[in-house]
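Holo model, zinc ion. Inputs:
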Amino acid sequence: MRLFGNQNSIKKMKYILLTVLLILVGCDRHLNNSGEPISRIVHLKKIFMENPDLISKGFQFPVGKDGSANGYYVAQGFQKRNKRFGGNFHLGEDWNGNGGGDTDLGDPVYSIANGIVVFSGHGGRGWGNVIRIVHSYPQNKNQILVESVYGHVLDMFVSEGDHVKIGEKIATIGNADGLYHAHLHLEIRTDPDMELGGGYAPNTYGFTEPRAFIRKNKDLKVAGNP
Ligand SMILES: [Zn+2]
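Output:
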């Protein structure tokens, strides 16, 4: 009977430990002022609210002098189906130097807008180094979050948590550890809370065409700014 009791206690203890572990693992590491966990997106919105200078007043291209894209072209557009990737849709745009091949290797990559770096590191095979930045911009009196993803980069000049300005040099064009000719794979995500993914997918939900988005949001009217 005593033995049974002990086993029961051990079972109970195991259960409690497992529950605590699950709570710890399941919890977001972001906390509000009262020390309660908050979601990643709420956490980012809070940083933008506390740092109005971080709100985007406009967007620009990630390559070319002053974000002009001069000297570069899109070799593979958004939504293009690619047979090498199961006929899936391309979720970004591939920016290449006009010179072709690896002539753009090491060229600067600029942040397309003000924002917060949410990832800077290796994205796994096929990605090479990746930088992810979340931006907040005004639309119909609301603040909208959008994310830019810079794939296959070589050098990285920003780290997770950094606040960046539009046009800031964040990386250089790379070739995904030698897998491709050098180019920048740029994604713009209307859903900034997704996994890195694979650059291609059967649908483009949560993604938008970078060129069209950048042109449309080149100059944004921000409250308090003429
Ligand atoms: Zn690509």
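The two ends are 80 Å apart (CA to CA). The chain has a mean pLDDT of 89.
Archived with the compound record.
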